[in-house]
Design goal:
alpha+beta; 23 helices; Ubiquitin-like (UB roll); 9-stranded mixed sheet; Creatine Kinase, Chain A, domain 2; globular; 4 domains; binds adenosine-5'-diphosphate; binds magnesium ion; 6-stranded mixed sheet
């Protein structure tokens, strides 16, 4: 065996381990739950818990934890030891089915957007048997990790996994209904596959230690753009530095042990920016794996004296980091509906799925923007960087022509249907071609999947994937309803007639040009496409009546849950900005102004030494005056920023506080930053208190 196959998944309670450790009938029933979506048969839970515990202990585990995805982002866990008293009072290791299935973390400090007031009962976590348990190494010992959902005692959603799992259910229903309406009989279960591409920056741990802004906020609040940034375009796909290769090798090794199929690794556009992409997997697993990837990235970097930055915009003036979420849908027969084929039936599924996504994006573009909105991602979306905040779809020349051909069909018969199917069939050769790509589009069709590029690098991809599922559900639902109203015709002809209409109706969201350009901003505005520049303006899309209807009809969130989600997002946004602004004030006062004072002292000494020799140096006197005025400018702008924090909190409600922070607050920070960045280029290196971009961006 190669090293890869030997270590792959050694930390996972996967199918092979289950087959090995469980009685055959228990194994069958458990896999029925995992792979066929059957409800968990609680009578087998005791055996599963026992097998899991034995396996974990044999691997060195001492503790177990339920692992869940709170709405504030990231993951959360609470460790419990296996330790217990036996009936005779001795110490033993125990793990019961009850502990496997349900646990009560002390949840009062997780955000719940007002759903659960502090005096109310706590939330609980519950095992998600469709994602395998695994081991994490905590110091010398290991911990058995049980992927879980997180709910309040009343059953309200407190996490991001529950809505995702719910979205799969309604997508399944609408998909199978449409399949039946089209006369397709083989599909019984829908499968969504995802491959999230993860971008990140790396800096040296020592240099990171000189930057309180990076440490506290994850991004630099100050820093002049370096002489050599990304303008040489020499980093993208460039040779990877040896030190980074060593880090990446270790990273891949650790991911393989966790059963995470890391596939590609390469340099990205900015200096010190990299990307990792896994093989695609079933979406639930892909999400859980992406969350693990973000943790493992940080841990392995630490061992190499490096720090991984997952923030969307660690450095001004350089490209930010995103998470391109590749999404495709198919069924139990192994068919990918987004894969063009030689079968006319499959090609009809292909066109129907395209149309469903067009209907969804056309109706819910604002919501799709809102779902990826947060303080970090605001530096990418709507800030002249990839991708824009206007949600449009890119199909490439070939597919666009084909769609036009369908839109312009004057009659539909056997011959035209065969023609269209032949057109779809020829697509793969074309769309796999790299030149037929548009890197500026937020939602691009790339051969056999959609690539949604607006997700932030630090975000849990779950929310975006959940919404893509819902948009597809909505589209399938509309198509099925309209199709069943078109009585009397041959179903294939009806379907093509319907596609022709839908392609026409949703034309405005398809855009093949440069999505960053001014022309598209103007034109998309005329077309009525939403374009929210920041989080506070994007979030209200969640509570539009049609969004709430979508959430309720797809049974993903109740209205109460939607409103609590928006509260949490607003609160998180406000806290993030407040911390950034307070940090900027603090750094300016305690690090920047003292550095300028030192410079003034030095230059002042030089000026007075010269004066004593009866030399009046006009240039040195000018410098002295300039440093003094720079000091005053930074002092004033620091005060302004500080005042704007207080001013923001005088607003009446949270949305207004957020809006103030987003506009006036951001402006006050930008003004302070510009003065500080000017100072950085004037003050002596020996006095400047923080490592500069140029050095931060060369690790070695
Ligand atoms: P590109 O972005 O150039 O198309 P790849 O084809 O390597 O690059 O795919 C990038 C990501 O898309 C990978 O994480 C991969 O797993 C994922 N991916 C590929 N095919 C699919 C698919 N059918 N469904 C979902 N994700 C996919
Ligand atoms: Mg890609």
């Amino acid at each position: 065996m190669s090293e890869l196959t030997e270590i792959f998944g050694e930390l996972v309670f996967n199918k092979n381990v289950m087959r090995d450790k469980l009685p055959h009938s228990t194994f069958e029933r458990l896999t029925d739950t995992i792979f066929n979506g059957k409800p968990l048969d609680s009578s087998i839970a005791e055996e599963v818990a026992h097998a899991m515990k034995e396996w974990a202990i044999s691997k060195g585990a001492t503790h177990f934890t339920h692992w869940f995805q709170p709405q504030r982002g990231g993951t959360a866990e609470k460790h419990d030891s296996f330790i217990d008293y036996s009936d005779s009072g001795n110490i033993i290791e125990r793990f019961s089915s009850k502990q496997l299935i349900q646990s009560e973390p002390d949840a009062s400090s997780f955000p719940s957007g007002g759903i659960r007031s502090t005096f109310e009962a706590r939330g609980y976590t519950a095992w998600d048997p469709t994602s395998p348990a695994f081991l994490i190494e905590t110091g010398k010992n290991k911990t058995l990790v049980i992927p879980s959902v997180f709910l309040s005692w009343k059953g309200d959603v407190l996490d991001l996994k529950t809505p995702f799992l719910r979205s799969m259910r309604s997508l399944n229903d609408s998909c199978i209904r449409l399949q039946r309406a089209l006369g397709h009989k083989t599909a019984t279960k829908v499968i969504v596959n995802c491959g999230p591409e993860q971008e990140y920056f790396i800096v040296s741990k020592d240099l990171y230690a000189t930057r309180p802004d990076l440490q506290v906020c994850g991004r630099t609040l100050f820093g002049a753009v370096p002489a050599k940034g990304q303008q040489m375009e020499d980093h993208y796909f460039g040779a990877i530095h040896e030190k980074i290769i060593k880090f990446m090798e270790r990273l891949d090794h650790e991911l393989y042990r966790r059963g995470i199929p890391a596939k590609t690794r390469h340099n990205e556009v900015s200096p010190n920016q990299f990307e990792l992409a896994p093989l695609f997997e079933e979406a639930n697993l892909a999400i859980d794996h992406n969350l693990q990837i973000m943790n493992v990235l940080k841990g392995v970097a630490d061992e190499h004296n490096l720090v991984v930055l997952l923030h969307e915009k660690p450095f001004a003036g350089l490209n930010g980091s995103g998470k391109h979420v590749n999404w495709s849908i198919g069924d139990n027969t192994g068919t990918n509906y987004l894969e063009p084929s030689s079968s006319p039936q499959k090609n009809l599924n292909f066109l129907m799925t395209l149309a469903a996504m067009m209907l969804g994006i056309d109706k819910f573009g604002g919501l799709l923007r809102a779902v990826v909105a947060d303080a970090g991602n605001d530096h990418r979306l709507g800030a002249n960087e990839a991708p824009p905040a206007i949600m449009s779809m890119y199909l490439g020349d070939y597919l666009t022509n084909l769609i036009h051909q369908i839109q312009n069909l004057s009659k539909i018969n056997e011959e035209t249907l065969a023609d269209i199917s032949m057109g779809v069939r020829n697509l793969p050769r074309i769309s796999k071609d790299y030149s037929d790509r548009n890197r500026t589009s937020p939602i691009a069709f790339t051969g056999n999947k959609f690539e949604f590029r607006a997700v932030g690098s630090s975000q849990n991809p779950s929310e975006a994937i959940t919404l893509l599922n819902q948009l597809c559900t909505y589209g399938y639902y509309i198509l099925e309803r309209r199709l069943s109203a078109m009585k009397g015709k041959d179903i294939k002809e009806s379907a093509m007639l319907l596609l022709k209409k839908v392609f026409k109706e949703t034309e405005r969201i398809r855009f093949e040009g440069n999505s960053y350009g001014k022309e598209w901003h103007h034109h998309s505005h005329e077309l009525g496409l939403p374009n929210a520049p920041d989080t506070p303006t994007a979030l209200p899309a969640f509570t539009e009546p049609e969004s709430i209807e979508l959430m309720e009809k797809t049974r993903v969130l109740s209205e109460r849950e939607v409103r609590s989600k928006v509260d949490i997002k607003l609160e998180t946004y406000i806290k993030t900005i407040e911390i950034e602004h307070k940090m900027a004030v603090n750094i300016a006062r305690t690090m920047i102004l003292p550095a300028i004072t030192k410079q003034i002292t030095l230059t002042g000494k030089a000026a007075s030494a010269l004066r004593q020799s009866n030399i009046i140096s006009a240039e040195i006197e000018k410098d002295l005056a300039m440093f003094e005025s720079l000091y005053n400018e930074i002092k004033t702008k620091t005060k302004n920023l500080e005042n704007s924090i207080a001013r923001a909190y005088s607003e009446k409600d949270t949305l207004k506080v957020a809006l103030y922070f987003g506009k006036k607050g951001a402006k006050a920070l930008a003004e302070l930053r510009s003065a500080v960045d000017k100072a950085e280029e004037l003050i002596s290196d020996e006095f400047w208190p923080m490592t500069k971009y140029q050095k931060l961006l060369t690790i070695f």
